[in-house]
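Example protein
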Amino acid sequence: MDIKTISKRLSVTPQITAADVPAIAEAGFRAIICNRPDGEGADQPTFEEIETAAKAAGLETLYLPIVSGKVGDDDAEKFGDALDTLPGPVLAYCRTGTRSATLWSLSQANKLSTSDILATTKAAGYNMGGVVRRIVNGGKTPTNTTDASYEVVIVGAGAGGISVAASLKARKPNLQIAIIDPADIHYYQPGWTLVGGGVFHPEETSKTMGSLIPRDITWIKAAVAAFEPKDNVVILDGCRTVGYKRLIVAPGLKLNWNGIEGLVETLGRNGVTSNYRYDLAPYTWKLVSEMKEGKAIFTQPPMPIKCAGAPQKAMYLSGDHWYRNGTLKDIDIQFMNAGGVLFGVKEYVPALEKYIEKYDATLNFFHNLKSIDGEAKKATFTVAKPDTEKTEVTVDFDMIHVVPPQVAPDFIRVSPLADAAGWVDVDQSTLRHKTYENIWSLGDVMNAPNAKTAAAARVQAPVVAENVCADIDGKSAAVQYNGYGSCPLTVERGKIVLAEFGYGGKLLPSFPKFLLDGTKPTRAAWWLKETALPPVYWKAMLRGREWMVKPEAISANS
């Protein structure tokens, strides 16, 4: 037997025999559902044989036969009713277990999210892609066809999605484009570090979505539930469908606040804050500006995360404030980093280490935040140093700046577009999907090994736009992405170490060294971050004005 657990109440398995039943009973199962019609296979025992053995073992049984490939809506309803009435746990079987897993998926459609159902069955080894529309439609067979179809559909109206839409329109003004995103507000997330440092007001980092999406692009204000790439269809919540000739996927990533035990319950109070959320960044500044003594902890989770420098930016700006007002001597700064280095590109580390020394901050590598007790002001970390056994350490705090672990959105992780780690699987040069040739991706959601920053999306957008246009014209990919990302490390108020690099940590400075040396803290880099980059974002990047981001052509020998 190859029993796969689906839920606490249900497991599924391929065909069983009467001889298997005693072991099934011994494993703790109390009922068996047969979803395979008698006579389907020449070597198949009848349900009556299974039922007789089950009764002898004290198990209840139900015969709910389903012809392969013909799971009806009523069948799923009956299966759900059986799960509610039979004593559990229940074992269901058919030839391979797929029909049983399908029945469970459809029966739970109004009880669990589509992503949860797809993730659960995927973990058990069953692909529910063939019934995803029915799952989205509450377990019922949809009667509608595609609601609308466009030449290009873009999923996500963040930095990457709007930028690539504007870049496409600049190249092909008559292109029919739709953007799918349920959000009302668009945020300039790079500004939240400065909100937490008391430099920006939060209102400066947000605008209404409707004011930013180009007027001649259709905005579908809805959430994506699933993808059917073989049919060129995106399925929305409520089972509406959108067809496309070409798809661009850019929904960003998911901040997994629930990945740290106790965090959600205490965020925004008890000295627990994070610049990774719009409403919490002002609380960071409140804590920093009011703190006169005690222990301040700054955490960094395992990679990948958006803006890998942001966890320590919060630490530097806080340390600078305490340094300037004379309280630093009474504040113990601790940087808890799940990784093993201060920054991934070695050329920038010496400048950062000088500020670690200036603020007398203690570096604790391989420390990953596991849980937090806000009321008690205690944080517990898993310590996983190389070649040593994992341990745990609990630390007191007066203030803690938390960066949550980060993953791809649920509807991406369970989709056919994802790699084994859940990110959209693209060619790192052309940003085209490795399996589906009419799909591209950019921004934080795709799996190219670059820094996940707005600056990276700014460079990726014209690459995707250029290559999509080349595909429309019947040509091969025209340009390539070099992995560029930028991380302006705010080491003090008024100075920044401007880290700019590409694949493999190669330095990719935008300016000559005599104008701006990114490996050293400069006022020029601060001016860029505080004054120049916000209008570049709002008025250039999101409007298809590709200043200083001309894509690199693919040579004939590439």
